[in-house]
Amino acid sequence: MIELGDTIGDYRVLSLIGTGGMGRVYEVEHTVTKRPEAMKLLLPGGDATDLESREEHVSRFIREIQVQASLTHPNIAAVHNAFVEQDALVMIMELVRGQPLKRLIDKDPPPLAKCVDYVCQVLNALDYAHRRGVIHRDITPANIIVTPDGTAKLTDFGLAKTQKDVQITREGVAVGSVHYMSPEQVRGQQELDSRSDLYSVGAVLYELITKQKVFDGNDSFGIMKAHVEKIPTPPSHWNKDITPALSDAVLRALAKDPMQRFRSCANRRHP
Fold this sequence. Notes:
The chain is α+β, with helices and mostly antiparallel strands.
């Protein structure tokens, strides 16, 4: 059990930032430089129920470390180091101080112009990643952190897929977060491209500017089915301040057919 004040490698644990099925994230301080960092640990056991599940979690975490470490962009949380300590796999990351977009949506949604600005920053990060062969596959408000100075940082590349990955999920198995999955993800298609992430960005922006999810309900299957079959309500229906150009852009990002979406995440600012 890790306690505050413990030293792991060259890092002293200061506080617990968050926890999940695969491990925990702590704020730490390097014992020599005194620089604050974020430490993500894949703990022995975790929520894995068998050896195969454990090996899959380790493999996924290693891939997350390698993918995120290969990306250097102001809107992507940077990876600084990784090592193994007492059977725990450790990733040292840039400490991003701020709030996830999810918390901002739940508490006090930002003004319309700010919402668009945050999403444009995410599009910049994704365009950079896509040009390097990385598809994120899990764009959600929880994986975008906004710093006090208004910088949006994309995090959590645990489901990311690169051109080097032959097959990291089984054909026909849906991966992602149910409210933000593209129709291709719902179908479990292996061959995803940048337009799948663009759909998820569209779903995030829709929620930011309307305070409504694109599709919602208590039934995950029903939500996934809606992504494949149902036409979204135009954003301007929920928020009269949304311009026709912005509403149309969001709906285009949410097109069922990837060919009908924008061809890339190259930044486009809308009125």
